[in-house]
Amino acid sequence: MDNSDSGKNKKINEVDLDEVLPIIGEFGRYQKLLLWLVCLPACIPCGFGAFNQLFMSDVPPHWCSEPQLSNFTAEQRKRIYEQSNVTQVKNGCMRYAINWTEVLASSEVHGDLEQLVNESWPLEKCNSWEYDTSFVQSSIVIDFDLVCERDIYPTVGLAALNLGGPIGVYFFGVLNDRIGRRKSYFLCLATLIFGSLLTACAMNFWWWATSRVIVGLTIPAVYQIPFIISLELVGPNYRSFITVMTCMFYTLGLMLLSGVTYYVRNWVYLALATSTPFTLYFIYWWFLPESPRWLLAKGRIEEALKILETLARINGTVLPDTFKQKLKQKMMMERTLSEEKRLKEGPGVLALCRTPNMRLKSILITFNWFANDMVYIGLSYYGPSLGQNQYLSFLLSSVVEVPSCLVCWLLMDRWGRRWPLCLAMTLSGISCIVTVTLPPDAVITTLVLFLFSKFTISASFLIIYPFAGELYPTQLRGIGIGTSAYIAGLGLVLIPFINYLGRENLVLPLLIMGILSVIGGITGLRLPETLHYKLPQTVEEGEEFGKNWTMADCITCVPKRPSEHSNSYEDLTEKLEMSPTTETTALATGSASGRSKFTRQQSIMETPLDSSGVVKMTCWF
């Protein structure tokens, strides 16, 4: 096969859906209906499954059970422990090793039991407890006696939930790329509901914890799959909007969860109320289409054409005959073995650390992602414990994410990625650290600082993902994002234990998260800015990008446009317009320089695509 035939075949095989979407509608009526009625509501179950556990493990006031005092009220028995000066007794973990029947028989006091207490009495461990259910009516802590020596068990349950995440992300990621987005989503949703049903049926703690691992398998996969379907159905100019809107609907799910938990106080009913309503989502089976990009990548041309024709018809446009012909030509051709080998080969994970600059950027990206994950999830877990009403505190901590996303969306195209990331993480960390200086009774001030910290870390969490995607070169983007996010995800297993320290000192977890956030924000300044720059494509370009970093670059808050001939990274904002004739000439001649002028940086995120133009779910983790 000569070079001309090879070039022709390659051109036919490279069917780019982004070229036809502006013609049939990048964000027309079809995409709007699908987005607002199907894809965005499909993101809500993630927040329910991720955070309903916080309200299943509420710890009510408790004290040792005293069967010999059954003739007295629960309030009278409670005062024995509340008014004790012995810490272990006051905490409800030790009881007086006495015979209360004999004590009452030899005393004339029958009303105030605390007057009979002699704090020099010997102590023994409690083997059963009573609970104050005036506020916390139901909890796994009550049903499974998870107090005193077993008070770390709810924390273990949260760690179990987070442990399932990395496993599920890989498993559903593979399924997503093999059997398609549509089937993967419903399988993921069924897994979440099944795990929640097991949670509601739990007879002991270890059954309950195992069921939480099953639920954790679907988080965040149950959110990412509809997100990817949305990205693959719209044009490049609307991917930023899709990103922000999916974040908004995720936040909406958290706000709805605060209302559900307020009205449903029984943990068994809560497990059911936050999962079984989503069985209605299986109605989407008849409305949610498969991704046409995925179908094209799998060679299922007729199915892809049918979806695209429906899209064009509802949008009031027509699918070009030239595009149909191009697809039919591709369907009749077979890729040569050498082409298949070329598509499969690529640099491995070691390429992230093989050269100095790439190694430094990979370490900094991973650390910043780790810090963002830890602080964001840590503050989300910590929210209900602050303030005087845990439901209101959780609601407020969710509401602040809405303006955070909007502000971040506006700033990133003006101030770039690096300084907004640094400022957001640093301010979040400082507001956490300041809480250490507050007196214990400054509950409202602590809550306000917490909400500001959650506002800023939510912004940085939105920045770090696209920033990482822009810093990694195209050849390493999928594996780079996957490695960084996977390592950061494993850190989520630690955050429940950090929050566990807050049982004794409420501000200690905030101090730890604050220091981590400040360090992450400061080290992030060492990363090169990506706004206005052509994204690196090869591993070699990735090594060169940011290699000449200086302190002058660091202190530049507003990114400057690079010169037209600064190495291989042209100023893409010039938006060089080429006529169809010029474009055809450039394509025919295979001009690399002409081709690079078309490369346009996405305003918020650079979506990692594989060789067929498909968003690979495994790349996102």
From TrEMBL:
Localization of this protein: Membrane
PROSITE patterns: MFS
Coiled-coil region(s): none
Presence of keyword Transmembrane helix: yes
GO molecular function, one term: transmembrane transporter activity
Domain Major facilitator superfamily (MFS) profile: from-to ranges: 100-532
Region Disordered, residue ranges: 579-599
TM helices/strands, residue ranges: 33-51, 152-173, 185-207, 213-234, 241-261, 267-288, 362-379, 391-412, 419-438, 444-467, 479-500, 506-525
Stated name of the protein: Major facilitator superfamily (MFS) profile domain-containing protein
